[in-house]
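Contributing new records

If you add data, match the layout below exactly. Sequence lines come first and carry their own label; structure lines follow with theirs. Keep one chain per record. Anything else will be rejected by the validation script.
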Amino acid sequence: MMLLLITLGVNSQDHHDIAKDMSSWVVKIKDYTSYMSDIITAVKGQAVTLSEADNVTFDVEELLKRVDILMKHELKNALIYLRVSLNVPENTILHGDINSLVQVINNMISNSIQAYEGKPEQNIDLSISFTEDKNNIIISIKDYGPGLSDKVKDKLFNEMITTKGKNGTGLGLYMSYSTIKAHFNGDITFESESGKGTTFYITLPL
């Protein structure tokens, strides 16, 4: 056996290095498998029918977990950082279809990524807070891009107008607004300033 190892130029240190590499890959595979399992769980939830999900309750922790799972790849590819500021307890309960809310938030994060027009190393702020009377929570998504044009501002929630120019369909924010109004009894508002960015506010009753 020793003769064979010497002939092949493989020594005991090589075996140790190979074993170390294999151990490292086992850990990576476990992480990737866990990540894929989370994605499958989150995506399967999208198949729940609206009638079944209308009366579902969920907490803020689960909401943020699903947003993170489904947006991680897009954020990483764009080299954009999502900074989360949580000013309510993680176990704060919300009512309605969590999958629809995740889609609304993710659409707004995607819009914020698009606002940077491919410029990397930028930030998007996601904040969750109570209103002063603590009867509602406000989810805000803020970017520091060029802001919205006056034409888009005037029509944003009234018709299918896009913030993405020729790359947008106009369905995203229009449908998001309709979803929050109809299925959460909530509201969406925004602030936008030229050269300083845009913030969307999703207000949901508790």
